[in-house]
Amino acid sequence: MNFAKNVELIASPPKSGRIDVLVPRCLIGNGKDVLGTSIDQEGLSSIQIEWRDGVITSIKGLKEISKGPEEILLPRFTEPHAHIDKAFSWSRSSNLKGTYQEALAANLSEYELRSKDELIFSVENSLNLALVNGIRAIRSHIDSFGKSAMRDWDLLEDVRKKWQEKIFLQFVALVPLDFWQTYEGDLLAQRVASNGDLLGGVIAPPFNKRRTFQSLLHLVQLANRLNCDIDLHIDESQSCSACGLKLLLDVLGQVKNEISITCSHLSSMGLLKEKMISHLARKMAKNKLKVVALPLTNSWLLGRKNRSTLIKRPMAPIFQLQKAGVVVTVGGDNSNDAWFPLSNFDPINLMAFSMPIAHLSPWDRLGLSPFTSSAAQVLGLQWDGVFQKGSPADFILLDSNSWVKALSDRPKRRVVVNGEFLNELPKTKNQHSQMISHD
Ligand SMILES: [Zn+2]
């Protein structure tokens, strides 16, 4: 197949092009543009898109074509939950048993010894992969409780500047919850808030209810004082179902909260009875809580028992949350570290592996949105990833004419960043040296 045959690059001006593609109908913002265009059984429509100076200038339905387009067009993706600071550390910090407890222990000892070069390797490797795989924004949690925390945040600030044209980065300071009550915690919070980043923490059983309530209350008050959002690792467990969420809702019942709170994982909530799930989901919607479900790491880590396969898996109840009006997105979480040995910042891989686990389908609007528009919404991005005139020409093109093939065949892909195909972009000097040293 001639991979480029549907493309017609216009000679001038730059960052422009026109392409015939298949687009999921739910990702087209204005129905009028494509009125009367047919939709196939997987929800894809044949569309012509034109862009100029990095911005979409025209979207129209293709009619009466003898042969349909052979590529699927998707917006560049948003990764709502990553750990770029420890990605690709598996070789020096493995976890062959695959349990949560062993992952935590391996992470703590790896973090204590993590050198500046190792941190840079993890981060740059993650970003290089994310870019070629078609990711435009990442929210990454950053281990921030050790003596190297400030050094790491300085370094990450440089990385963010270097990458800002290609990938938008948002960081979450990941610390034990009590840390925010310390002097160092207060200093870190001010720094995080002044950069527009987020405060994080972990609430997983077993925990002391009273103490955790106090720590959580302090964190929510601190975040409101600093006008800084929160993203918590909460209820990543197979026991004490939704204990952390219930505490959080109790806290929110006592304080006025005006910042955005994301609940990452929320795995044990899925083990509750349906009635309780919808009761809590409604309360979450009322408090505008957002959710990042992480099916891959949950399936790998949680509820492991020697020689006994767990059938009922802890995972955020995505449908019930969506039904209650909660914004839910699906993230990749860890890559090639003690928490999860597989994965590689590839959003198509993430879809292919997490969709069967979570019963999400790419041809359903609410099956696709956790990977596209909801992820952009959780990060508060300007563009929600829906195509319309005036939106950025930020695409990935999959060499496939159906979802089933796209998610089965690992199709070739092309990435368009701000109107330009990725292989046409000039490489930065640092990126080039990174590739030489680690390829
Ligand atoms: Zn995580």
Structure characteristics:
35% helix, disordered C terminus, TIM Barrel, 4-stranded antiparallel β-sheet, 20% strand, 8-stranded parallel β-sheet, Urease, subunit C, domain 1, disordered N terminus, 2 domains, 439 residues, binds zinc ion, alpha/beta, 16 strands
Report on this model:
The structure is a single chain. This protein is globular. It has 14 helices and 16 strands. The protein is of the alpha/beta class and 439 residues long. The model is unreliable at 1-5 and 429-439 (pLDDT under 50). It has two domains: 7-70 and 387-424, Roll (Urease, subunit C, domain 1); 77-379, TIM Barrel, CATH 3.20.20.140. It has an eight-stranded parallel β-sheet. A four-stranded antiparallel β-sheet has the order 1-2-3-4, with no helix packed on it. The protein has a four-stranded antiparallel β-sheet with strand order 5-14-15-16, covered by helices on one side. The site of zinc ion has 6 residues, from loops.
End-to-end separation: 29 Å
**What is the number of strand segments?**
16
Number of domain units: 2
Backbone shape = globular
Main sheet strand line-up: 6-7-8-9-10-11-12-13
- Low-confidence stretches at least 5 residues in length (pLDDT < 50)? 1-5, 429-439
